[in-house]
Amino acid sequence: MEKKPHFVRREFLPREVSSISLALLLVAVLLLNVLLYLYLNKFYNSLEHTEMDPSLCPFGHFKLGSVKNCSPWLSCEAINREVRKLKCVGEGAVKKVFLSEWKENKVVLSQLTNSELKEDFLHGLKMLKALQSKHVVRLLGYCEQQFTILTEYHPLGSLRGLNETLHIPKYKSMNTWHHRLMLAIDYVSVIRYLHSSPLGTLVMCDSNDLDKVLSQYLLTSDFHILVNDLDALPLVNRSAGRLVKCGHRELQGEFVAPEQRWPYGEDVPFKDDLMPPYDEKTDIWKIPDVSNFLLGHVEGSDIVRLHLFDIHAACKKKDPVERPSAREVLDTYRKVLTLLIREAAMPGTREML
């Protein structure tokens, strides 16, 4: 008998397998998008949460370490009785800074060193009290009579030591474009907060060069940025026609904004009363230079710079009116982070589809 041939539809298997693979790929992409959405939603919620003190203590109080209860700011008497100086860790034109101890906690004690600058010192204290938030170093107490301020201690110190810190084995895992961009976002968040603070629009005047800017900020152990020095924060009040000038001396160099430089040429001697005032857009001019330092030179940082090129070019507009606001810069930084995280989470997805 003639055997009947067995027909097997093998030509349909690849198509079925391809359809299944495509479906699985689409499910995987969907899941990745959901996870990415949840991560970014949590991230932005943490960025946008209330500007009040993160420990949720009422004004005039603080939490420190693992203590659950809020304590009132320490008074002159409490500081003299309970705070013990350990060593001097820094000295500037206005104050001397001591690493100190309070109830087994490391703290920072700042004391005025130049009586001629006591108004600057008291202005810094006023700003520190009024601006307590997640962006500002935590105030623990003060004594106006003795020109003393007590704040939280951050062992990683100022931003000047960022690159050295990231070479310590414990922190090498943080030396990525992602963590560095997060620091840049933190920095711009501080500028945005100062420009829309409870007191009004404040200008960061202690910022005549990169090193000076970096010295004004602290790096926390969980890799966030806090502004630490608030001695020079003049107020812009446009409705009252009030602009600012950062000091009474001539400012030079490419780091400061064009409107901060003497506009009448070398042939005309500098005179403070002839120097035109300016506004908070001087801070915007400096953002690209500070961010360039924060981004460093790690794998992926050049890609971040490429994505930030347009906003940084806008920050460097000669006319301050044409520069973006700190809010616009911050929004752009966040969009770039979102885009790059999505691309990192799903590399080559378009090609696969």
TrEMBL record:
This protein's source sits in the domain of life called Eukaryota
Its record classes its membrane topology as: Single-pass type II membrane protein
State one molecular function term (GO). protein kinase activity
Q: For the Protein kinase domain, which residue ranges apply?
A: 83-353
Q: Which GO terms describe its biological process?
A: protein O-linked glycosylation
Q: Which reaction does it catalyse?
A: 3-O-[beta-D-GalNAc-(1->3)-beta-D-GlcNAc-(1->4)-alpha-D-Man]-L-Thr-[protein] + ATP = 3-O-[beta-D-GalNAc-(1->3)-beta-D-GlcNAc-(1->4)-(O-6-P-alpha-D-Man)]-Thr-[protein] + ADP + H(+)
Residue ranges spanning the membrane: these are: 20-40
Q: What class of enzyme is it?
A: transferase
**Pfam families found in the cross-reference section:** PK_Tyr_Ser-Thr (PF07714)
Q: Entry's PANTHER family? A: PROTEIN O-MANNOSE KINASE
Q: Provide the function of this protein.
A: Protein O-mannose kinase that specifically mediates phosphorylation at the 6-position of an O-mannose of the trisaccharide (N-acetylgalactosamine (GalNAc)-beta-1,3-N-acetylglucosamine (GlcNAc)-beta-1,4-mannose) to generate phosphorylated O-mannosyl trisaccharide (N-acetylgalactosamine-beta-1,3-N-acetylglucosamine-beta-1,4-(phosphate-6-)mannose). Phosphorylated O-mannosyl trisaccharide is a carbohydrate structure present in alpha-dystroglycan (DAG1), which is required for binding laminin G-like domain-containing extracellular proteins with high affinity.
Its protein name is Protein O-mannose kinase
The organism's taxonomic lineage, starting at the top: Eukaryota, Metazoa, Chordata, Craniata, Vertebrata
